[in-house]
Specification:
The chain is of the alpha+beta class and 368 residues long. It is 47% helix and 17% strand. The longest helix is centred in the first third of the chain and has 26 residues, at 109-134.
């Protein structure tokens, strides 16, 4: 091992850098007592000069970002065996630091993760700024699922810059990139469902596709898109149940289309869904499957589209869980009327149920 390798490494956001670049602006507002720093590799390049620094200072916290670029070299395979095409991709590394008056001397993993998400959300403001100014389609907002699987953090006591903690932090399980092969029966199930999707006009397939998109958006921490896709999931599901009922009762497809145009979705689920499939659809109750969906998804979607609402990680998770519960509730109601709804149930049975992977995301509290 060389002498250089033996030399302790430190983040670029350190005592010297703080005193030179940050102290005046931060301590003009408050005197920080702790600093937590993370190193993150972005899955894209921000075309900023090395050592570019952005910072925001508030009354009791300051967020600091220090950028540099590096080359990621890889080989893209062409044939089953042998070498492929070598390529070099430019990526951005960023140090994200929060200077705070909060006592971080006994910070647990959950609180550390919350600081990482807090800093990531602040970083997204700069990503949005860049995208708005330059319309770069290759950049996107970041969250738990789009960061590298592991980051390294350091907690320092100020003003002496004494290290309290320094270690890796598991951000997500994307590091498990080599998956166990599916057993043959499950591989055949994938093939069979794929063929069904390609050849079937099952009206419940779009709803299930929307939910798959919502799950991906949730993991990427795109909570606004998560909620929009979740409401699309529910509207597609309920609308197609209504369509099938109306056509089963003798209406033509054009008559159903006209009825849908004349009847707002709110009227459909408040008045007509209970008449067709039963159940308690009172969305004014303080809690329950329907009211949880109404508040966490339906109303949240309206706030996003009509008021620019920016949902949090908790809003996204609550919406996701509410839609899974509502889907289960709807299927239970359909099964109770299996005699008169056998054709509807048959179509529903050919589409995989919605499900949770345990807790989709950990509960968090906002730093702000």
């Amino acid at each position: 091992m060389t002498a250089e390798q033996n030399t302790p490494r430190s983040f670029s956001i350190n005592r010297e850098y703080y005193n030179r670049e940050l102290k005046t602006s931060i301590e003009g507002k408050f005197t920080p007592t702790y600093c937590i720093v993370f190193s993150a590799v972005l899955p894209f390049q921000l075309p900023l000069k090395d050592r570019t620094t952005f910072h925001l200072v508030f009354n009791d916290k300051a967020s600091v970002y220090y950028f540099n670029k590096f080359v990621d070299r890889r080989v893209v395979p062409i044939y089953e065996e042998g070498e492929g095409i070598k390529e070099a991709i430019m990526r951005t590394r960023v140090e994200m630091a929060c200077f705070t008056t909060e006592d971080l001397s006994h910070t647990d993993t959950q609180r550390t993760f919350e600081y990482l998400m807090h800093l990531t959300n602040r970083l997204n403001c700069y990503v949005y700024s860049y995208r708005m100014l330059f319309d770069d389609i290759y950049t996107y907002c970041l969250g738990q699922g789009s960061l590298h699987s592991t980051t390294v953090f350091e907690i320092l006591k100020l003003p002496e810059w004494r290290q309290i903690n320094s270690q890796p932090l598991l951000v997500n399980t994307n590091l498990d990139s080599i998956l166990t092969n599916l057993p043959e029966d499950l591989a055949l199930a994938v093939e069979g469902l794929g063929a069904y999707i390609a050849t079937s006009n099952n009206p419940f397939l779009p709803s299930r596709k929307f939910f798959a998109e919502a799950r991906r958006c949730l993991w990427l921490s795109n909570h606004r898109e998560t909620i929009i896709y979740l409401q699309m999931t529910v509207e597609s599901l309920l609308n197609n149940i209504l369509r099938l009922f109306l056509m089963q009762s003798g209406k033509s497809e054009s008559e159903v289309d006209s009825w849908m145009l004349e009847t707002p979705f709110a009227t459909r689920f408040k008045k007509w869904i209970p008449q067709f499939i039963g159940g308690n659809w009172d969305y004014t109750k303080p809690s329950g499957v329907v009211s949880n969906w109404f508040n966490n998804v339906y109303q949240a979607r309206n706030r996003i589209l009509h008021g620019g609402f920016e949902p949090s990680i908790i809003d996204g998770r609550n919406a996701f869980e509410s839609v899974v519960a509502l889907s289960t509730y709807v299927d239970d109601l359909l099964r109770k009327r299996s005699k008169e709804l056998s054709s509807v149930l048959d179509l529903r049975s050919k589409v995989p149920n919605l499900f949770l992977h345990g807790d989709e995301l950990p509960m968090t509290t906002d730093i702000d």
